[in-house]
Amino acid sequence: MNKNLIEKIRSVLKSLKFRVFVIVALAIILPTLISSIFIYNVAVKNYTEKKIDSFSGANTVIRNTVENGHFFDEVVEDAETTNNSVLQNNAQVEHLAKAHQCRIQVINSKRVILYDSGSDAGKNSVARAVQKGMAGEKQFVQKEDAVEYVIPVVISSGGSETESQIVLGVIYTRYSLKDVENYSLNMRRYVNMASSLLVIFGLILAWVLSVVFTNPIQRIEKSITEISQAKNIDKEPVEEENDYSEVMEISRDFRALVSRLTTQVRSQQEFVSNVSHELKTPITSMKILADSLLGQQGLPEELYQEFLQDISKEIDRENNIITDLLELVRMEKSSAEINISSVNINEIVETILRRLKPIAESKNIEVIFESFRPVIADVDEIKFASVVNNLVENAIKYNNTDGTVTTSLNSDHQYFYLKVTDTGIGISEEAQERVFERFFRVDKARTRETGGSGLGLAITKEIVDKHHGSIKVHSKEGEGTTFTVRIPLKYIR
Ligand code: ADP
Q1: Ligand 1 contact via 403 beta carbon (within 6 Å)
Q2: pTM for the full model?
Q3: Do 211 and 16 contact (CB within 8 A), yes or no?
Q4: Judging by beta carbons within 10 Å of its beta carbon (0-12, 13-18, 19+), is residue 253 exposed, middle or buried?
Q5: Mutate to test the pocket of ligand 1, among 441, 448, 483 (most ligand atoms within 8 A of CB)
Q6: What is the pLDDT of residues 53-102, one digit of tens each?
Q7: Helix, strand, or coil here: 421?
Q8: How far is the CA of 193 from the centre of ligand 1 (A)?
Q9: Cβ-contact 309, 317 below 8 angstroms
Q10: Interatomic CA distance for residues 142 and 129, integer angstroms
Q11: Residue 293's closest CA among 305, 281, 283, 282?
């Protein structure tokens, strides 16, 4: 047999369909066979018992007839009387033998067969049961095709005190069990027929059930295969109306899982390509600047200075991007890295505003802090400081000269709220939906000037999420932007 065939057979034997088939088939066939054997045995046994009961009744009649006859009389007056009475006795017993369809022998104590409804009259009986019956005990022998009885015929002798029994002879009866045999043959035929039908029915039912039970699993398997071969990821799942709800749920959950993983993989790929692009841009600029310096000789000192300053800026930009990337990757690693403690939020905000004020002043931007109440909350101090820093820095960066940046801090019994509002360039509605994406910049050229990495808000959102908080943006182009952060006062892991 070739290897493939063996593999195929093994896989069929291991399949759920085959196992369901075998289990259901056995569950139907085994009880059917056991109960048909039981029914057959009980029916044959009952029939035999009934027959034997009827033999006992016949035996009583035969015994009475023989005892009332004169089979064992030895003293006779004359031959004619003897002959008459023998003939009369024989006729009666013969009638009974015919009526009960049995063989009757009347045997005297010397085991001479006095009468036989068969043809052994006058011979000696050698049957063991007859020999035993002569001792006065009734004998019953069941053979395969017949039952035999030996009934002793006894008379009592002596007085009431010294009473003893004398065995005159025995009556031997033999009833054929041919009838029982016929009955059991018929019965076997019926039972065999019925159980064959049930076995066929069982096999069909087992097959149908194995198909019905395993079909949904095959559908799931097919759908998984389709997904794994990336044929069908975005296609709506093929759900059968009458599928089991569990199967539909598995299908749906699986698709949701795959779709989530696919989105993750796509965004990961996008991220890698963005990172490469972002890291390449400053290097390309530096290469152009350096090449143009190298390509020309005897350039004035100021030009060298200017070009080198540009190269230095690009290096700073590259450095910013790498620092932010490392921060973002670190943040995404695990929640164990968050270092929560009870922190005075007002103090953090004030410190950062103080630090950023000089930058704001260079653009004549007013920095205002509105603190509605002192706020103490469970946060990671360093990470939360970087949230405030990013938002205020952006509010200054994307503001107009002579603008304002207002930072407000408030709380209720559950959360604290940090609001950073500027009077800057604003963000269009479509862009508002994307500002938290990595490397997203509304105006690439402007960002180039400011040296932003495009990762600041992505990091900010990541930190706020880690604190189980939320961040929202409200903006109108040309009027200004407000970022609102809401963080729970108590950190629950
Ligand atoms: P970047 O380093 O470029 O500032 P961010 O992730 O901090 O990166 O911001 C993403 C983009 O969102 C910015 O490039 C800018 O276009 C826009 N943006 C962020 N804050 C503001 C703001 N206060 N006003 C206007 N635009 C903003």
Answers
A1: no
A2: 0.56
A3: no
A4: exposed
A5: 441
A6: 999 999 999 999 888 877 777 544 555 655 666 667 778 888 999 998 99
A7: strand
A8: 87
A9: no
A10: 11
A11: 305
